[in-house]
# Entry
Amino acid sequence: MQYRGRIWKFGDDIDTDVIIPARHLLTHDPKELAAHVMEDIDPEFSKKVQEGDIIVAGKNFGCGSSREHAPIAIKGAGVAVVVAKSFARIYYRNSINIGLPLVECPELVDEAEDGDILEIDTTEGAIINTRTGKEYSAKPHAPYVQEIVNAGGLIEAVTARVAARKASATA
# Structure
């Protein structure tokens, strides 16, 4: 998949309590969660972020509790992809399971600035910073991960596979 969006840059160790504070966990509704995403770091973030924007962060993004609310809030806010130096493993899996693509690219994180525009191809692992023209290589998504992201999440991917098997069995 290809993405193009404006960077919102954050630092290291952004935990799930910062992504979506615990006081807002009474819902699973993506839009309600999105209204409070990152509010303890930037109270205006949810009002400024636009559909297709990209979060860029340091190491260990999504550390902390294993709640799914964090990637749901980010995706609900319209963020298309998150690029970081590294991700907490449970956050990585929760994000892929809901169809939020994640990309690890430490060099880009060190060089990118808030507001830059990135072009990202998660299938090829290619990233271009349009401000600098610099190209970066990231590990592309494995085919099964890309299938889940393309479908919009794990449930959607499994549903599509089951439907395809049923269709081929009755043909």
Q: What stands out?
A: Residues 125 and 140 are 4 Å apart (CA to CA).
